[in-house]
Amino acid sequence: MFDFEEELKKLPKEPGVYIMRDAKEAILYVGKAVNLHSRVRSYFRENIGRGPAIDKMVSLIARFEYIVTDSELEALVLENNLIKENSPKYNTLLKDDKTYPYIKVTLGEEYPRILFSRVMKKDKSKYYGPYTSAAAVKDTIELLNKLYCLRTCNRSLPRDMGLERPCLNYHIKQCLAPCQGYVSKEQYREQVDKALEFLNGNYNMILKELETKMKCAAEALDFEAAAGYRDLYNSVKSVSQKQKITDSDGEDKDVIALYREETEAVVQVFFVRGGKLIGREHYYMTHVSENDDSVILQDFVKQFYAGTPFIPRELMLQREIEDSALIEKWLSERKGARVYLRVPKIGAKEKLVELAAQNARHILEQDRERLKREEGRTIGAVKEIAALLGLSGIQRMEAYDISNINGFENVGSMVVFEKGKPKPSDYRKFRIRTVSGPDDYACMREVLTRRFRHGMEESRELEEKELDQEYGSFTRFPDLLMMDGGRGQVNIALSVLEELKLQIPVCGMVKDDFHRTRGLYFNNVEVPIDTHSEGFRLITRIQDEAHRFAIEYHRSLRSKAQVKSVLDDIPGVGPARRKALMRHFKSIQEIKNASVEELASLPEVNRRAAEEIYQYFRGQNPE
After folding, report:
1. 541 with 416: CB under 8 angstroms?
2. Start-to-end C-alpha separation, the chain
3. Residue 55, domain extent
4. Which of 140-149, 443-452, 465-474, 569-578 has the lowest average pLDDT?
5. Does the bond joining 130 to the residue before it have cis omega, within 30 degrees of 0?
6. What is the model's pTM?
7. Same domain for 43 and 118?
8. Which residues have a Cβ under 8 Å from the Cβ of 590 and sit 6 or more positions away?
9. Residues 325 and 402 in one domain
10. How deeply is 218 buried, as exposed, middle or buried, from its count of CB atoms within 10 A (0-12, 13-18, 19+)?
């Protein structure tokens, strides 16, 4: 038993990180402190106005632990690492798993390349970014390689110089072929320097150069070359026009502002590189209800810049944050150069921060509308169905379907919808074991019996092991069972549930003569439903999903059976040759029409096997 009074007395008066845990050892909260003794003890004082969320958290604390550090800066770093690793329930969290692309110029190589990278390392390369669009980065790299005829291969030069023939890029005049020594190191580096000028935003020089080349080619009546230069000119023009000048000082900076309403907050970041706005991104913060804007902003800065490889020289913030001096020191150490946190009060910089805040507000408002529409399609639709059937508390719905062709390869499908949304991780396929021939009722009886018996057995095992029921794949039973059909399918389901002594509502999704959903069959009555309602649309989605899942499974089994029945009966054709034949010829008919020479041209098929295959399809035995 954890003795709080005794453990609180032992707390050191040193900087460090404290970790609050609940009765199941889950981490509730991670925090840092200049003085662990006073900070941790403050949680257990009464009537200090912490707010209901913190009071709730404190009531769940079963024990705490702490890690002493040499400085508050070390505590800040450790706090960030623990929050990122454990995502505690009561910490304000940054919801972001993104990695941003960079343009990497490998200046450490004798013949540098321009590469796409999502990692910024401390090497001799020069990095540009981060950018918010991977597609735009790839387009820019392709444009630069075309403009300056730089190599794209991964050969180690000059070591591998002359070992292989020049690649296609040399022949189409998109590479200077340093791999053959066709260009000196100095000439190649001049081209790289031009590319660096381009990446630094100096587009005028290349535009003038391309315009001159285009005119010269046109005057020489080389219209194909002129058209190529024209296309490159337009590409560069397009790139240059996308850059928006935001500041004349040419510094790298991030502009950060937030907008919040009650339990929701969005942080907007403008990425300014070399004085140009290259992109923007927004981030959602969770667990914000008990914190003011300054705390949310501070938590964002700590968590975001703990994970991003590039740190700009300046962070322009919407408001002051408490640990600004400490965070400046931490960021400066990470960057290896001085980083400034500033809150602009007047002028263009203040307007830019306001613009970021306006963008954050628009994003939150748009997202709220989207979520409202999504809720109508999902939770609202479930409520409609529940009201129609006179039920309550419906969250999980399961639907079943049977697929076969004249009784061949009978299969069943189970799809799951929770709160009106599909949950593919809980979908299940059933290959029918006890039924031969086209008997959908018998197949459905087998599927439901196996599903619920499996769930009951799994539940018993988990209870014996004292594990949480959530860990079982079949243990969660539906609040409503939805059968693809009317009275017959519903009665099959009810009889299975009765045999297993389970109480689960069952309804049938009834279709009309044109195979369109028309209503629900429940308690021996067909219940009509408004075909324009969200509830009706959800029923249709569930029915279509069950049917699709069953058909896809059946199709995959048919495909395997077809390939097996034809190719596996040929002497000398095993799995590897079968796969090679199907990959090359695409269909059984193409294999049947192939000559011995065509069959033997595959590396996996020798002459003897080719003759076996050829003679098999012609009904003869090889000599």
Report:
1. no
2. 85
3. 4-91
4. 465-474
5. yes
6. 0.47
7. no
8. none
9. no
10. middle
